[in-house]
Amino acid sequence: MTQPSANYRPTYDGKTTSQRNLLAFLRYYVWASYRRKLLDKLLDRYRATFSGIVLDIGGRNRGRFEKPKTFVYKCIFADINP
Predict the structure, then answer these.
(1) SS3 78
(2) Per-residue exposure over 27-62, b if at least 16 CB sit within 10 Å of its own CB, e if not
(3) CA dist 78 to 17, 56, 58, 69, Å?
(4) Per-residue pLDDT averaged across 48-77, rounded?
């Protein structure tokens, strides 16, 4: 009997990790707007320029961009929604 591969780790819903990643990618690709995808791409391209104190206008977690934590001293979030 062979051992299952490392990607075959069923989660609570019966899906493997690779299946969940594929579903997340497809959900983003289908439902995210062109503007959201463009913003994520630009933010990721200029990730290295974030340093010191960063003012995040809009301040919500949207899209795939993860806020850089390496050279950022402090993030200030400005959003009209609490």
Answers:
(1) strand
(2) eeeeebeeeeeebbeebeeeeeebeeeeeeeeeeee
(3) 35, 6, 6, 18
(4) 82
Tokens of 75: 């993030």
H or E element, residue 52:
strand 52-57
What is the value of pTM for the model shown?
Answer: 0.59
Buried b (16+ CB within 10 A) or exposed e, 67-77: ebeeeeeeeee
Residue ranges per domain, the chain?
17-78
pLDDT score at 6: 58
pLDDT band at 11 (very low <50, low <70, confident <90, very high): low
Q: Is 24 helix (H, G, I), strand (E, B) or coil?
A: helix
Length of the chain counted residue by residue: 82
